[in-house]
Amino acid sequence: MTTRLGVIVPSSNTTAEPEFAAAFPGVATVHTARMPLADVTADALDEMADGAADAAERLADADVDGVAYACTSGSFLHGASFARELESQLATAVDAPAVVTALSVRRALDALDANAVAVVTPYVDDINERERDYLDDAGFAVETLDGRGIVDNTVIGELTPDDAVSQVQAAVDPTTVDAVFVSCTNYNTLPAVERLEADLGVTVVTSNQTTAWDLCRELELPTTAIPGKLGDT
């Protein structure tokens, strides 16, 4: 039987579904549940997270084999303990393995032996600083942190892989870092990973890429369609 993957996304996210589908061609089907979110602010993300378990329970009706909470800022907002508790709640709700993006990023960077990282985001300063705190607490040195200052998640979804390439190239000195993390599951970045790795000479990870990789790891699925060095890890 085909593996079924549940993905929980903000209602305004238009990127996660196609990027997850690209990561599992012929391997699994992707089924989504949406939580209300229009703007990427701390208050809105908190309110959205309150509905995560209900969304997972709806995915359980589809008998999914695993579930991913595909929202970066919504999972790192209150630190690692919050992310771990969220992951546990989702696993209980679907009675299957669960991953959340904030922890998936950490696991991917650890697997790649990255220490010094550059972080590129579409977010406003408040969300960026919370992300810095999360990564600092996880033991990573954030050498660069660059955001676009966008609140409207629909606008974030309109960004292209070329926008991601331009932002990374302008913000990052690759000689100072082991890896670049392009953050946000609504930032269309998957097609830019290998181009950026070739250009910069360092590993590049993204929110959807790491979350898909982590779900593959949990379910023992192949990672051959996941771009970049992470797909070979």
TrEMBL record:
Pfam families: Amdase (PF17645)
Coiled coil regions, renumbered to chain: none
Superkingdom classification of source: Archaea
InterPro entries reported in the protein's UniProt record: Iso_Racemase_Enz_sf, MaiA/AMDase
Name used for this protein in its record: Aspartate/glutamate racemase family protein
